[in-house]
Amino acid sequence: MADDHQIDTDDLQRRMDGAMAALRQEFASLRTGRASGSIVEPIMVDAYGQQTPINQVGTVNVPEPRMVTVTVWDKQLIGKVERAIRESGIGINPVIDGMTIRLPIPELNEERRAQLSKVAGTYAENARVAIRNIRRDGMDRLKKEKAAGMSEDDHKVWTAEVQEMTDAAIKRIDEALATKQEEIMQV
């Protein structure tokens, strides 16, 4: 009879893992003073009449620790790729060199490191909010199941499980934030 009233914890876990994956992707886009191809991943280029990810109009490479290059495949798009990089807000001035656009990564000063650390904190808080929303969905499902005849004991067990999943996800977010902030503050 207990199996008649349960919630899909796998679905909740999958959604929490998705929120964590989104956070990791946002963290990857924050530059830390070292070059990384992920810094240009979110940039969209107006190519052939539609918004296209930068990695679909050229090859992104990291030839040296402080340099990212984008080798554009279509000569006509070089100006558009350069404009998209300038307008993206990543704070890097692109340098055109033939079919390649070079992005020199400048040293981060203390003020910029503090700003990036705050941005990382904002990303982490957004992920925590997403996790809490998933928890709320799970708790709402439990209320419906209880109204449909779930026993008090089963309700407590499932509530504890949802809370445990939430606590674990929040802990993973806090650990990822601490790691990212440490990485940002490294000189």
Automatic annotation (TrEMBL):
GO terms for cellular component: cytosol. GO terms for molecular function: ribosomal large subunit binding. Keywords: Cytoplasm, Protein biosynthesis. One of its GO terms (biological process) is cytoplasmic translational termination. Its main location: cytoplasm. Residues 23-185 form the Ribosome recycling factor domain. InterPro entries: Ribosome_recyc_fac, Ribosome_recyc_fac_dom, RRF_sf. It is found in: Cytoplasm. Responsible for the release of ribosomes from messenger RNA at the termination of protein biosynthesis. May increase the efficiency of translation by recycling ribosomes from one round of translation to another. Belongs to the RRF family. HAMAP family: RRF (MF_00040). This is Ribosome-recycling factor. It comes from Oceaniovalibus guishaninsula JLT2003. The lineage of its organism: Bacteria, Pseudomonadati, Pseudomonadota, Alphaproteobacteria, Rhodobacterales.
